[in-house]
Every structure is written in C-alpha cells, then in structure tokens.
Design brief:
This protein has 175 residues and is an all-alpha fold. The chain has one domain (3-174). The chain has helices at residues 3-45, 49-94, 104-115, 121-127, 132-137, 145-174. Helix 1 (3-45) runs antiparallel to helix 2 (49-94), helix 1 packs parallel to helix 6 and helix 2 (49-94) packs antiparallel against helix 6 (145-174). The termini are far apart.
C-alpha cells in the first residue's frame, strides 16, 4: 500500500472517531438536559420546600456532571480534530509530488477555502498558485465553519442552557 493510501486510512479513522465523539457528547448532553428540565419543572411544581430542595440538589449534581463532561469532551474533541488536521496536512504534503489532477484533498481544501462560489472550481484549482504558505493555510486549526459551530458554539449553547435553568430557578425563588 502506498503512503497516501495509508494516510487516507488514518485520516478516515480519526475523522470517524471525531464524529463518534461529537455524536456521543451531543446525545449525552441532550439526555442530561432532559433530566435537568424535568427536575426544573418538578422543583417549580413542588409545594413542599424539602422536596424542592432535594430535587435542586439532584439538579446541581446533574449540572455538575454535565459541565464536567462538557469541558472534558470539548478537550477530547479538539484533540481528535487536531489528529484529523495532522493527517490532512500529511496528505496535502504527500500530494505535492502528484500531478495536479491527482491532488484530491488539496483540490477539495482549495475549493473549501478559495473557490466555493466559483463557477468552475476544477479549472480554478488547476490554475491556482499553490505555494507552501497557501498549502499551510488549507487546514488552519479551528478555522472551518462547521468546526466553529460544532466545537465551539454547540458547547457554548449547552453551557448557556444550564445557566438559564439555574438562573430561572433562582429568579422564581426570589419572587
């Protein structure tokens, strides 16, 4: 097996792990938010202060677990994304010796970064000036739109939701 094929296998494996971690984390956070929402409603409905207090302690435990997982899964997902970037950089580097028509990942990354709205992205790539600086920009860490949404904003949204649950409870108790 040649080097590029081996690199593609490694990239595919790392990307599969990355997507699996994202999905696992999303499901886990969704389940914990559902539990937290149920506890939130129960706390608001309980007439007995002791029951409401007990439910709030359970909510605090669920929230602590959710935030702990949020922080650690965020680290894990970012590390796995760096592994995918490593393989992509290696493939792009290995493709430099290939004719332009065979530089599959490089062409795709040029399309993503520079030619997404061009009429003929293939022609654009074939005439595009690929310097070593441009190649280095093709997989800049954390610059992709999808990664920003999944690896930053989604984590932030979960944190905001947990903060809202507790803020609304504190606000309802203050009234």
């Amino acid at each position: 097996m040649n080097k590029i094929a081996t690199l593609w296998q490694g990239a595919s494996y790392q990307d599969h792990l990355l997507q699996s971690y994202r999905l696992f984390h999303f499901i886990l956070q969704s389940v914990l938010l559902a539990i937290g929402s149920g506890l939130f409603i129960a706390i608001l409905i309980f007439d007995d202060t002791a029951k409401a207090s007990y439910a709030y302690v359970v909510l605090l435990v669920v929230t602590a677990l959710a935030i702990y997982l949020l922080v650690n899964m965020n680290r894990l997902i970012k590390a796995r994304a760096e592994d995918v970037d490593y393989y992509h950089n290696q493939i792009i580097e290995a493709e430099t010796i290939l004719p332009r028509e065979e530089q599959v990942l490089t062409a795709f990354k040029v399309y993503q970064k520079f030619a997404r709205f061009k009429a003929d992205s293939t022609a654009f790539f074939l005439q595009f000036q690929l310097t070593s600086e441009v190649r280095a920009q093709l997989t800049e860490k954390g610059k992709g739109h999808t990664r920003k949404i999944l690896d930053h904003y989604l984590f932030l949204a979960f944190l905001i939701l947990w903060t809202c649950i507790h803020s609304m409870l504190i606000w309802s108790w203050a009234m």
